[in-house]
Amino acid sequence: MQRPPFSALASVYDAIMADIDYGDWAEFILDYARDVSLQPATALDLACGTGTLTAELQARGLSVMGLDASAEMLEVARERLRGTRLVQADLRDFALDERFDLVTCVFDSLNNLTEDGDLGRALSRMAAHLNPGGLMAFDVNTRTGVRDLWEGEVMEGLAPMPGGREVHYHWSHHYDQRAQLGTVQAVCRMDDQEFIELHTERGYDVADLEPLLHSAGLASWLFCEYPDYADPLPDSPRIWVFARAVQDGG
């Protein structure tokens, strides 16, 4: 049965992504913040999904709000993050009544914005929710990364679930050269149940991002690679972006 993106997947997402070290990502972000003399106390974690990065930021002393478009992913996050503020909203038009020292959006979530203008709107909303001098941190798959997602175009395996069950996942990737879009067909089976979700991404390079960051009103930005903050190469599959809001009076 085909389901909308990030709906049925919520029930097995953490099992399949168990090898992703969100803790290292949190340290990567906060180490950079410290290097630029920023000690964030509050954070907004966008596309928070099941709340894993949200929890890692909280464990490091930040007060964090999570936001995601998927009700199903947020339902899982609420079980993990009892008492945490979680909001269902769209990255392109969300509007909250507060600002934050840090705004994050990780694991190529912004690549799911595929229509012209979508990414620019999201970056503008992110910038609008930063405190003066605050930091925006996100990663994106580049055009190369979306085109060449996995060797052999397939990711497959078994992941253990609570209660001794296992989920079998078979994810296949197709790249449409003309549209410059990559689509993953995610097939998951557990017991006698099966579902399919289609996830489409557009790649973004430095040349795509720079004018959007400028239009969003950011004061400065850095493009780099994880985990050493090295300059991206022309064929880098993924890049990280750190962008600062304008300081008060500057």
Commentary on this structure:
The protein folds into 2 domains: 2-142 and 204-244, Rossmann fold (3-Layer(aba) Sandwich); 146-201. The chain is 25% helix and 34% strand. It has 7 helices and 12 strands. The chain has a 7-stranded mixed β-sheet with strand order 4-3-2-5-6-12-11, with helices on both faces. The radius of gyration is 18 Å and the shape is globular.
The separation of the N and C termini measures 54 Å
Please state the structural category.
Answer: alpha/beta
Counting DSSP E segments of at least 2 residues, the number of strands comes to: 12
Q: Over all CA atoms, what is the radius of gyration?
A: 18 Å
Quick recap of the structure?
The protein has 250 residues and is of the alpha/beta class.
Question: What brief labels describe this structure?
Answer:
2 domains; 7-stranded mixed sheet; 5-stranded mixed sheet; 250 residues; 12 strands; alpha/beta; 7 helices; Rossmann fold
Please specify the SSE layout and strand pairing.
Elements: E1 2-3, H1 13-16, H2 22-35, E2 42-46, H3 52-59, E3 63-68, H4 71-80, E4 86-88, E5 100-105, H5 118-128, E6 130-141, H6 143-147, E7 154-160, E8 166-176, E9 181-190, E10 193-202, H7 206-215, E11 220-224, E12 238-244
Parallel strand pairs: 1-10, 2-3, 2-5, 3-4, 5-6
Antiparallel strand pairs: 6-12, 7-8, 8-9, 9-10, 11-12
